[in-house]
Amino acid sequence: MTTAPRRPTAPAATTRDGDSGTGPSGEPNGSGTTGTELRRALGRRQMALLGLGSALGTGLFLGAGAAISVAGPAVLISYAAGALIALVVAYALGEMVSAYPVRGSFGAIAGRFLGPFAGFSVRWIYWIALIVGIGSEVVAAAIYLRFWWPEVPLWAAVLVFAAAVTAVNTSGVRSFGTTESVLSAVKAFAVVAFIAIGTVLIVFGLPERPATGVSNWTAHGGFVPEGPVAIWLVMAIVLFSFAGIELVAVSAPEAKEPGPALRTALRTLVLRLSLFYLGAIAVMLAVLPWTEVTAGHGTEASPFVTMFAAAGIPAAATVTNFVVLVTALSAANANLYAAGRMLHSLGDDRLAPRALGTTTRHGVPRRAILFSACGFLVVAGVTAVFDDRVFGVLLALGTFGIVAVWIVILLTLLAFRRTPDPDRPPSTLRLRGGRITPLLGIAALLSVYATGFAVPEMRLACAVGVPALLVLAGSYVLLVRRRDLRNTP
Fold it and tell me: What's the CA gap between 6 and 356, in Å, rounded?
């Protein structure tokens, strides 16, 4: 038996109910399991909300304050640019994964078109980035909890939330999908309500508060108070806000109708995220001067809570804090799902311990999920030492990993297009612009890495991230290549 990563194959023809007789790698699926396969149980709406659940998290509700503190109102330009980059990556994913909805998703596809080391490294980088992202979400949730109980130790709240998220993830995928769909719908409704209430404050005002208009966009140092360079400096935070769109592609092997579901989910996901981020931040900056928004973003409350409190709506601040707490937990829940599935694919391809590639009789990769959840313990320990200062570091480290993954996705698309395959199923989504669009996307992502020279948190991320890549390379040579040579006749 070969030990190289499994070659992505075309999905089997689907039956009338949207399931298929075999899984993405040719193994049977459905209600029975062989101990390694996942179960197709996610519908189109669940896939779309799953991606929204991952991406709509601390990047908006807590990280936005950090971005505003650097760029002021000009952060709207940064988020528009981030949305454009995310759109390019989403369509690149859709073009490849709709043809090959395999376990390991873009990582397995990278292994085929860029070589085994690419498939090995990008999956491990993505898994590490997810663990860091999960940590940042539960730390954010613990920070939100301090709005009511400031005396609660941050590390204790992290452990409690981690246990809850792990319990939800180890249930069946159908139950997980339903739970995450509800949580995602709640926070999407909350953002829409926030934008609507903010619009009322801007246009009509309240009995004791006149309409603000949009003068705050330029009233305190102009629209670009910190200079044009600041628009670029916050791109690391902005891209972290959109991280999670790739989760839709990771969930494709568990979708009832992978191709149509992937197309629908990716098309709507980036549009919704763009409207939510740009709309919510534009409203926030119009109601409050940007200097006041940044004053309250750090540890006591999110910018959303700060805005409602300043608007004189007392109950809204409490409700909003509850919503953003649920939002952070929802994002952590979705990211743990992706981490478990990615680690499961590595175990199944013998790029991680084989035990991690097994599933329960209900098709849940429980061992991979529990192993991924151990990252919570690390985060709790670090939080106990550094308290809320750890959030900015986690955000920067997560961004480093996500940017690396997005660059590999675009490189894989270029190789995917250069390698014709008459047996390849047609893609249901296609990135327009030929080679130019993915190349521009890669250039933009590389420019984000360059912020490491100017942003202290990103300098730390680069200092940790680059050696981590070297460790992965060494691990591949020592573990995988040596094993392959030993098994070669």
Answer: 16
